[in-house]
Amino acid sequence: MEPYRPNCYKIPELNGLRVLLVFIVSWYHFWQQSWLTPSIGSYSLDYLLRAGYMPVDGTILLSGFLLFLPYARAMLLGEAVPNTKQFYQRRIIRIVPSYYFVTLALLFAVALPWHLYHNSSDMVRDVVMHLTFTQTFNPATYIATPIGVASWTIAIEMQAYLIFPLLARWAMKNPLGTLMTMAAGTFAFRGWCVWRLDEYNMVVNQLANFLDIYALGMGAALLYVWLVQRYPAAEKRKAMAWQGIATLLCVLSTWGMLRIFRVQAGESGQAALQAGQMMRRPLLGLAVAGILLTLPFAARSLRFLMGNRVMGWLAAVSMNYYLLHQNLAVHLKRLGVPPSVSAEPNRAGEQPWQLQYTLLCFGLSLLGAALITLLIEKPCAKVLKKMFARGKAENKA
Residue 121: is its pLDDT beyond 90? Predict the structure, then answer.
């Protein structure tokens, strides 16, 4: 049997990390509706749910890592620099079909039948800004939208994609300078927010507040490629030592992430929560980067736990799950599904309803995500790939 060697192309362990981060965020959104606070024996998970919005930062760091990985390979392994046109085409293929479908489905199945818009102009503005990934620039389309409250994350990603090839090429020429400039710009923006503003609803999750997280992900990609080249796969004792150290560092990074969640959960008041989120974002990014960098080098059991086929499938549907889950949870409660004894079962602490509702949210969100992936994302991806290939052939001719 050949010795294990991590590689710079397929990193299955990161599927598990993505699934874990998205799971916590979705659990937080379900908890907002159910108020069901679970525990493991006497260990309460209340803090994890109260700060369950923070793993979004981890998904953005993971995105920065994966986006920059081909550029890191070009820098350290001498591979070709990624083609910018193909970069944009891949992002469109991956994001746009499912995102447009979910957005329009929510419009016609929820917002319009339930008369959730005050007037037609509000509806048109909301739809147009969602379809152009600009909804984060207006409170009505970002905070108060009925067609995809969680979709702001996709909008931030698409905004980042517009400038990412430029940032990546700058980073290839001057890695430290580029990444430090991105981080410094974000720190300056956050400092201005905390100093000048009294509330942070419209700034806490803008792209300018995430550039340091993208920079961390990009730096982690460089470090990962460098580590892979030095992993002693052929020397069993050294490989075992690497795995032991990586496992320990992964556990410590996970502990650090949970500790940040616990401290954040102790904040009181919306402004304090959002200020704390902004200030703790770099520390959380470092903790997630620690998990990301150590998982592929960790003990075999941990690698299997995070990188098995089930995790791979869950990661494949995770974007559609994320787009769907919060809206589905809100509408199920609006419809009174499942039925409850009291009018406000979450406030009454109606545990049978809380448990049924939470499980139903998880189950239906996963089922819906699988169907969207199978019936919308994959067929549309095939069509778009053919269109882009045809356009490339015509340009050559």
Answer: yes
